[in-house]
Each structure stands twice: as structure tokens, then as C-alpha cells.
Specification:
With about 250 residues, the chain is an alpha/beta fold. The chain has one domain: 3-Layer(aba) Sandwich (Rossmann fold). The chain is built from 8 helices and 7 strands. It has helices spanning about 20-30, 40-55, 70-85, 105-135, 155-175, 195-200, 200-210, 220-230; strands at about 10-15, 35-40, 60-65, 90, 140-145, 180-190, 240-245. The longest helix has 29 residues, at about 105-135.
């Protein structure tokens, strides 16, 4: 018996056309789930869909979406339901970096980070949870947060604050939506090699490696199984949790 067969399951992953989101999509597809990628870049969307559909298992489709814009989310949601008919899980993964030190903070930098990382998750959950409630069969809400939401890191106050907001939203959503059999959890990811981390100061990666107890970056293959477990019925009794996935970084 396959404990993690997701045939018939439909998931959406915002920002799923690269990095952590694409890694989670691979696991879902391999387990038989259908995956809707929501991303701003049509070329990256097309490339991700081509890769995912070549894996076998479930199918993938992409829809252009900017999670900062409520209308854009509504359009992507409608297109996803038109294609797949339902959503069983939502991985609110779209995010930006751009951390700044407080003495250099501007209103524009603060608002831009919060708009994508915090408001984007809330607006995505608004549309997805309304569908799940109307459908009446429950669902899974999973957010990409960060270990920086519970740790101090230099020159990253706006980013850390945006991810701390995601943690609070996760706990609130879990309590509010439990009556509808909808769970909500967040992943406090540590250091994974992505386009975002590649743009950071190389010294930051070196410092991180020394601080992580397991002495290595996160492996993207491991994200595949993480996504499958939390999309599956085996995680049904887990809700309201902000789970560090960081090689022990948060305890160092």
C-alpha cells in the first residue's frame, strides 16, 4: 500500500516556478497530485510546467498571478478551478527578500516586503479558504515562513517582521478554520540555495553554514517529501504549527 498516494488531490503553489516552491511541486506531482503554479513570470511558469509534466504522476498547469493584487489572485483562482474543479491544499510560498538594516529603512522598502510576504499570503488564503469552506471537504493551508521570524539576523528587520506576520496569520487561521476541517501550518525554512539566497552576500552563506548544527544547507529533495506529508491525510491532526525546517539553526 502506498501511504502517500495523492491521486485526485489538487494543490496550488504560489511562487512555484522556482526555488523552494518548485521543489515542493516536484514531490506533489510524483505522488500523483495535480499542481497549479501561480507566478508572475510567464517564461518561468512555462519552464516549470514543462519540467513537472515530464516527471509523470499528476499534471501541472501555470497561471500568471501577482499575490500583491487581489484581482490577480481572483483571476488565477478562477482559472485554476476552471482547469481542475477544486483545490485541496494551498502552499502560499511566494515571497521576496530585500532585507534592510533599520537605520536604512524606508517606507517603500517596508511596504514592498510586507505586501508580498504577509499581505500576499493573507489574500491568497482569503480566496482559497472561501472555496474550501463552500466545498465543505476541508483542506490544507501551508505557508513559507522563515527562521528569521524567530531569530535575529543583521540587516533583515523588514523581512523578519513580514515572516513573523505569517506565523501569526498561521495560528489565527488554524483556530478560525478548524471548524471547517481546514488546517494551517507554516514552514520556518533555514538556508536553502535559491535565486534569492544567491543574490545575498557570499559571506552570509559561509556564516550560516558554520552556525547550522548539521553543517550544511537544506536539500531540495527533502522538500518533496515534506510537501507530500503535509498535503496528505497523515498530517490532518497537525494545525497551527510554525515548524522550523532548518538543520537545527534555530537552536544554535
Amino acid at each position: 500500500m502506498n501511504l502517500f498516494d495523492l491521486s485526485g488531490h489538487t494543490a496550488v503553489i504560489t511562487g512555484g516556478n522556482g526555488g523552494v516552491g518548485l521543489s515542493m511541486a516536484r514531490g506533489l506531482i510524483k505522488s500523483g497530485a495535480d499542481v497549479a503554479i501561480w507566478g508572475r513570470n510567464p517564461d518561468k511558469n512555462a519552464k516549470a510546467v514543462e519540467e513537472l509534466n515530464a516527471l509523470g504522476g499528476g499534471t501541472a498547469a501555470a497561471f500568471t498571478c501577482d499575490v500583491v493584487e487581489d484581482e490577480s489572485i481572483a483571476t488565477a483562482m478562477a482559472a485554476t478551478l476552471d482547469r481542475y474543479g477544486k483545490l485541496d491544499s494551498c502552499f502560499a510560498n511566494a515571497g521576496v527578500g530585500g532585507g534592510r538594516a533599520l537605520p536604512e529603512m524606508t517606507a517603500e522598502a517596508w511596504d514592498a516586503t510586507m505586501a508580498v510576504n504577509a499581505r500576499g499570503v493573507a489574500l491568497t488564503y482569503r480566496h482559497v479558504s472561501a472555496h474550501m469552506i463552500e466545498r465543505g471537504t476541508g483542506g490544507k493551508l501551508l505557508a513559507t515562513s522563515s527562521g528569521q521570524s524567530i531569530m535575529g539576523v543583521n540587516r533583515s528587520s523588514n523581512y523578519a517582521a513580514s515572516k513573523a506576520a505569517v506565523n501569526g496569520l498561521t495560528r489565527g487561521a488554524a483556530f478560525e478554520l478548524a471548524r471547517y476541517n481546514i488546517t494551517a501550518n507554516a514552514f520556518l525554512f533555514g538556508f536553502y540555495e535559491t535565486d534569492m539566497t544567491a543574490a545575498a552576500d557570499p559571506r552570509f552563506a559561509e556564516w550560516m553554514t558554520k552556525r547550522i548544527p548539521l553543517r550544511r544547507f537544506g536539500d531540495h529533495e527533502g522538500l518533496e517529501g515534506l510537501a507530500v506529508f503535509f498535503a496528505s491525510p497523515h498530517s490532518d491532526y497537525i494545525t497551527g504549527q510554525c515548524l522550523p525546517v532548518d538543520g537545527g539553526l534555530c537552536i544554535s
